[in-house]
Fold each of these.
Amino acid sequence: QKEVEQDPGPLSVPEGAIVSLNCTYSNSAFQYFMWYRQYSRKGPELLMYTYSSGNKEDGRFTAQVDKSSKYISLFIRDSQPSDSATYLCAMSAGQAGTALIFGKGTTLSVSS
Amino acid sequence: DAGVTQSPTHLIKTRGQHVTLRCSPISGHKSVSWYQQVLGQGPQFIFQYYEKEERGRGNFPDRFSARQFPNYSSELNVNALLLGDSALYLCASSFYTGASNTGELFFGEGSRLTVL
């Protein structure tokens, strides 16, 4: 079992739809949870950052972490064509020298 | 403010050759990490450097090496290139201070390596 599982999609939605992206993980030591957005042929950019369990909202984006279920989600409201990208979940246990573990990424396409 | 800068952006090598990739972190960041991203996969951790010392290493062969300079820039070297080394090599810098790794990384655009 991989440490982080993410459905690669692709996911296609019409403009204005609500999008739900998810990841599951197996390592209970993970404490820091992130979502990165990666446009084609670009480096990933940090979208949302959450420490431990709970929700975090930033504009049209909401990140949720459920440590008891080892499950994290990213919701995008009122999706726009500019949201078309690959979304990578990532997590870290936080110890010095440890890596950020990424999911495979989910490719999202929002059509106008 | 300049973000993380990487060079070269694209390069083509043949099997057995050597490659050097370069990275300049965001001003004020003292930690640099390298990741390999194969097409269709998430980035995989190769190295983390902080204050010129290696602080973490992923599951990559000894053909991969790196170093960090006094100005916090970094180089990734790959020897004896294999076809499977074809990937996007990402450099990321962070506020890491030598204690906990909170994971907030700021990535560059990457160096796309093709090995023929």
Note: The two ends of chain A are 38 Å apart (CA to CA).
Amino acid sequence: GQQVMQIPQYQHVQEGEDFTTYCNSSTTLSNIQWYKQRPGGHPVFLIQLVKSGEVKKQKRLTFQFGEAKKNSSLHITATQTTDVGTYFCAGPDNYGQNFVFGPGTRLSVLP
Amino acid sequence: SQTIHQWPATLVQPVGSPLSLECTVEGTSNPNLYWYRQAAGRGLQLLFYSVGIGQISSEVPQNLSASRPQDRQFILSSKKLLLSDSGFYLCARRGGGGYGYTFGSGTRLTVV
């Protein structure tokens, strides 16, 4: 079945450093979504990418969808302590009915 | 708005006791609703989803069941809890038009 993988599992950075998490799918995706979950909180939808090679920005966050639509990345420039949390990607399942979530990348930012 | 209400926020239950978690949704009719479980430090596991009243699809064989008695109400239940049922339970609804899932604030269940 559909599998969505993410690397790294954990990332510790110093405040001000950049951070990137990568998402890879075993199949071509029609679209991909990204979520952020703060410690103790619930996942919050960040963005959806649809087009091959699409790049979207939200302030210091840059999201990219691969040309083959099988991978995606989230890059954070100059991390802040407010960026702490787990970042999940999610892609449609084989039936297009629901989304399959990746295992997430947990980001720690040291002040 | 697409507000999702879940309660309680935390719950400690003994092994073998029953469970009932309720989720109610505001803002729209006939939403697709979901129950996810998240083990500590892990990803999201889809348990059940519902596309309408009385319609439940189970993704993983569990010691759990779900029901949708009303359009905006989704209930997760168990007759006898196991230690392995501990986790963070999240109710969600699927957005449309390029919007993703909206999650409730979750229930943190500890089975002791």
Note: Chain B is about 0% helix and 55% strand.
